[in-house]
Write a structure and sequence with these properties.
This protein is α+β, with helices and mostly antiparallel strands. 59% of the residues lie in helices and 6% in strands. Helix 19 packs parallel to helix 21. It is elongated and about 95 Å long.
C-alpha cells in the first residue's frame, strides 16, 4: 500500500520546535472529514495560545485525522520547581509522570476566550487528547497473564502512571495478600460443617420427622409437606450456620481492622520512599493554576446551609428510591412464586422457593448493573449542586455520594432477606397479603440463612466472573476491531506511534475511580454479610489474583495512557473502608442474632433442652429442638380448608415460629428469645468494636522507622538553614558572629525526586 505521507505531506507547525528524537508529551486529534472554517480558526487560536505559553507543536496528518504533537518548554517546569521547591534546597528532577500532569492541566485550562479543551471537543474543534505510551519493558512484562504470580513493580508503575495508580495497585496487592488468612478461615468454617454433615442432631431429627407435616406455603399450596422432605436442605444449611459462624464473624471484624492498620503502615513506607510524606495536594493545585494563568484568582471555600440542606434532602429521596427498588424485588418474588406454583413443570412446582431465590438473585444483579449507571449521573448532579472548590475536593464528595447510592443498590435486597423476609407474614390461616391479593413470600424451608447464602453466592459469583469477563473482553474485542479496520501502512514511525495510541480504548476521569469502586463493593460483600457466606473471602481472593493482571493488561496494552495523578494515600477510600468495617460488625452481629439459628439453639440448650440442669454424656443437648422450634396450627382454623388435599386426615401442621397453639399470638419463648437476640447484638458489637479499637491501638498507623526518618530529615533541614544562615550573618562588620559550636552539616547529594 502506498505510504500516506506521499499523498499527505507532513506539516511543521512550529519552526523553533525541538528535535524529532525528543518525546512528545501529548497528542491532540482533530477530524479532517468535517471541514469548517470557523472550527479551523478556533483550532488555530487554541494552538497559537499554547505556543505563547511555551509549548512546541508539530502537526501530522493521515487520510482521516489531524494529529498535533505537544511538548512543553522547560521554562514551565522551572516555574513548577520555583513554586513548589524547598527554598535553598536542591533542585528536584521532574518525573515523566509530572510532565504529563502539568501539560494536561495547562491544556484543559481556560483560554483567553474562556473556553477549555473539553469545550472545544464538544464543539467539534478537536476530537480527543491523550498522553503517549512509552516503551516500558518492565511494565510490558508485568502486564501478561503468565506473570500472574510475579511481584508488582510499584516504583515503575509510579514513574509511568503516577502515584495514584501505583497506590491503587499497592493497596490491591496488599488486600489480596490479606485475603489468604481470611479465605483459609472461611474454608475451615465451611468444612467444619461437612464434618457434622450427618452427625448433626438437628439434621437427624428433621430427616426422621416423617410424621410431622408442614403447613402449606403460599396461596396455591395444595398439600401438606412432610418435614423429612427438607432433609437435604437442612444438612446444607448446617454447612454455614454452625457454631463456628460466630467465631468467624469476630475473626473477620478483627481481620478488617488489622488489614487497614497494616495498610496504613505500608502506605507510610511507600510514601516516604517517594519523598511525598509532607506533600500538600491543595498547594500543588494552586501552583498548577498559577502556571496556567499567573493572574489566577484564588477561589475560597464556601458553604451554604440552604445548598447543604437541599443536597441532603435530595440524597435521602434517592436513597428511598434505592430502598423502593428492593420492594420491586419483593413484588417480583411474590409474583414469581405464584407463577411457578401454577407451572406445568413438576420441578418448578416442587422447588418453588429455591427457584424464586435463584431467579430473584439474577434480577437483583441486573438491577445493580442498571442502577450503577443511574447512580453515577445522580452523584454527579449532586456534586454540581455542592460546587466543590478543587478537583480533589470534587472527587472526594463524589466518592461519598456514589458509594452511598451503590451501597443501598447492592445491599437493600440482602438487608430485606436477612432481617425482614418471613417475619411480617403473619401465620397460617391469617397471612399478610400484598395489595390484599398475594401472600408475602416466606423463608426457605430450612431457614432464612439458606436464602441469604444463595443470594450472596449468585451475586458474588456473577460479579467476580461475568463482570471480569466483560471488563477484559469488551476492550480487547473493541481494539481488535479497530485495528482490523485500520490496516493502512505508514512509514513514518512517529505518526505510526501516534495513530497506534489513538486506536487504543479511550480512558476517562472515572477509569481508576471505577476500579476502586469495584473493589470497595467486593470488600463490602466480603465483610458485611460474611457470617452468611464464609466462602466470600475465597471467591474474592481468586477474583483479585485475576483482577490485578486484568487491570495491568488494560492499562498497559489495551487502553490509552492514564493521565498521572499525584497522591500520598488512597484518599476518601480509606474512610470508606473504615465505614465498611463498622457496618460489618453491626450486620454480622444482627445476622447471627436474627437470621441464623445460633441464638435459639443456645437458649434451648440451657433453658428448655435436656441439658438445662447439666450435660448428659449419653444425650445430645439439642435433642427435641426441632419439635420445640416449630409452632402448631390446627387445620380446622384454615379459612378455606376444602382446597387442601389430605386435610381430612391431618389435624395439625407445623410452621417455623414461636406462637401459642390456642390463639396463635407470640409465645413466652418468642419474647424471651427477642430479648436474648437484642442483648447478643449489643454484646457482640461492643466486644467486636473493642477488639477493633485494641487492634488499632496495638498496630500504629505509621512505623517508628518512618517517623524517625521524617524527624531526621526535618532536623537536617534546620541544620542546613542554621549553618548557611550563620555563615551569611557572620559576614561583614556588625553582624551576628557564627556560633563557635556550629559544625557544618554532612554533605549530601541532591535528591533526584519529584517535588
Amino acid at each position: 500500500m502506498q505510504d500516506e505521507e506521499n499523498s499527505f505531506p507532513l506539516l511543521e507547525a512550529n519552526t523553533g520546535e525541538t528535535e524529532a528524537s525528543e518525546p512528545w508529551d501529548y497528542v491532540l486529534v482533530a477530524d479532517r472529514a468535517q471541514t469548517n472554517p470557523e472550527r479551523d480558526q478556533q483550532r488555530q487560536r487554541f494552538l497559537e495560545e499554547l505556543r505563547r505559553k511555551g509549548f512546541h507543536i508539530r502537526t501530522r496528518q493521515d487520510r482521516e485525522k489531524l494529529f498535533f504533537g505537544v511538548r512543553a518548554d522547560s521554562g514551565i517546569f522551572a516555574l513548577y520547581r520555583t513554586l513548589l521547591g524547598e527554598p535553598g534546597g536542591p533542585a528536584p528532577r521532574i518525573q515523566p509522570s509530572t510532565r504529563i500532569r502539568i501539560v494536561k492541566f495547562v491544556l484543559n485550562g481556560k483560554t483567553a476566550n474562556g473556553e477549555t479543551f473539553d469545550d472545544l471537543v464538544k464543539e467539534g474543534v478537536f476530537e480527543i487528547s491523550f498522553p503517549l505510551h512509552k516503551e516500558e519493558k518492565t511494565l510490558k512484562k508485568w502486564a501478561r497473564w503468565r506473570s500472574m504470580c510475579s511481584k508488582q513493580p510499584i516504583d515503575n508503575i509510579r514513574d509511568y502512571f503516577g502515584e495514584k495508580v501505583a497506590l491503587y495497585f499497592a493497596w490491591l496487592g496488599w488486600y489480596t495478600t490479606m485475603l489468604v488468612p481470611a479465605a483459609v478461615a472461611g474454608v475451615l468454617v465451611f468444612l467444619s460443617g461437612f464434618s457434622l454433615f450427618h452427625a448433626s442432631q438437628i439434621s437427624k431429627e428433621i430427616c426422621e420427622a416423617h410424621d410431622i407435616f408442614l403447613c402449606p406455603r403460599g396461596d396455591h399450596g395444595r398439600s401438606f409437606q412432610r418435614l423429612s422432605d427438607t432433609c437435604t436442605f437442612a444438612k446444607l444449611t448446617h454447612l454455614f450456620d454452625n457454631e463456628g459462624t460466630v467465631l468467624f464473624a469476630i475473626f473477620m471484624a478483627l481481620w478488617a481492622t488489622v488489614f487497614l492498620e497494616i495498610w496504613k503502615r505500608q502506605r507510610a513506607r511507600v510514601v516516604l520512599h517517594w519523598d511525598l510524606y509532607g506533600w500538600d495536594e491543595e498547594q500543588e493545585e494552586m501552583a498548577l493554576e498559577l502556571i496556567n494563568c499567573p493572574q489566577h484568582k484564588l477561589r475560597l471555600h464556601q458553604h451554604s446551609y440552604l445548598r447543604s440542606a437541599t443536597i441532603l434532602v435530595l440524597s435521602l429521596l434517592v436513597i428511598c428510591l434505592m430502598i423502593g427498588m428492593a420492594h420491586v424485588l419483593v413484588v417480583y418474588r411474590v409474583l414469581a412464586a405464584a407463577l411457578f406454583r401454577n407451572s406445568a413443570w413438576p420441578f418448578l412446582e416442587q422447588q418453588v422457593t429455591t427457584v424464586v431465590v435463584a431467579t430473584g438473585a439474577l434480577v437483583h444483579y441486573v438491577t445493580i448493573v442498571v442502577m450503577t449507571k443511574i447512580n453515577r449521573c445522580v452523584a454527579q448532579k449532586l456534586c454540581d449542586l455542592e460546587q466543590p472548590r478543587t478537583l480533589s475536593e470534587r472527587e472526594s464528595k463524589f466518592t461519598v455520594k456514589f458509594f452511598t447510592l451503590q451501597f443501598f443498590a447492592h445491599f437493600s435486597s440482602l438487608i430485606y432477606i436477612a432481617f425482614i423476609l418471613g417475619r411480617i407474614n403473619g401465620h397460617p390461616g391469617k397471612s399478610v397479603r400484598l395489595a390484599g391479593l398475594w401472600k408475602l413470600e416466606e423463608c426457605h424451608l430450612s431457614g432464612c440463612m439458606m436464602d441469604l447464602f444463595v443470594q450472596m453466592a449468585v451475586i458474588m459469583g456473577l460479579k467476580q466472573t461475568l463482570s471480569n469477563c466483560v471488563e477484559y473482553l469488551r476492550p480487547w474485542l473493541a481494539l481488535r476491531l479497530r485495528l482490523r479496520r485500520q490496516r493502512r501502512a505508514c512509514r513514518d514511525a512517529e505518526l505510526r506511534a501516534w495513530r497506534r495510541d489513538y486506536l487504543l480504548n479511550p480512558v476517562t476521569v472515572f477509569s481508576l475511580f471505577d476500579e476502586f469502586m469495584e473493589m470497595m463493593m467486593q470488600y463490602s460483600f466480603t465483610t458485611i454479610f460474611v457470617a452468611a457466606f464464609p466462602l466470600a473471602p475465597l471467591l474474592a481472593l481468586f477474583s483479585n489474583v485475576v483482577e490485578i493482571r486484568l487491570d495491568a493488561i488494560k492499562m498497559v496494552r489495551l487502553q490509552r495512557r492514564l493521565v498521572p495523578r499525584k497522591a500520598k494515600d488512597i484518599g476518601t477510600w480509606l474512610q470508606v473502608l473504615e465505614t465498611i468495617g463498622v457496618l460489618a460488625v453491626i450486620a454480622n452481629g444482627m445476622v447471627i442474632a436474627f437470621t441464623s439459628e445460633f441464638i435459639p439453639r443456645v437458649v434451648y440448650k440451657y433453658r428448655y433442652g435436656p441439658c438445662q440442669r447439666g450435660a448428659h454424656p449419653a444425650i445430645d443437648c439439642l435433642t427435641g429442638y426441632v419439635n420445640h422450634s416449630l409452632s402448631v396450627f390446627y387445620t380446622k382454623d384454615f379459612r378455606d380448608p376444602v382446597q387442601m388435599e389430605g386435610w381430612e386426615t391431618v389435624t395439625e401442621c407445623r410452621y417455623r415460629d414461636y406462637r401459642n397453639a390456642h390463639d396463635y399470638n407470640p409465645s413466652e419463648q418468642f419474647w424471651f428469645l427477642l430479648a436474648i437476640r437484642l442483648a447478643f447484638v449489643i454484646l457482640f458489637e461492643h466486644v467486636a468494636l473493642c477488639i477493633k479499637l485494641i487492634a488499632a491501638w496495638f498496630v500504629p498507623d505509621v512505623p517508628q522507622s518512618v517517623k524517625n526518618k521524617v524527624l531526621e530529615e526535618k532536623y537536617q533541614r534546620l541544620l542546613d538553614k542554621l549553618w548557611y544562615g550563620g555563615q551569611r550573618l557572620g559576614q561583614g562588620r556588625g553582624k551576628t558572629p557564627i556560633p563557635t559550636n556550629l559544625t557544618p552539616p554532612p554533605s549530601s547529594s541532591p535528591k533526584s525526586t519529584d517535588v
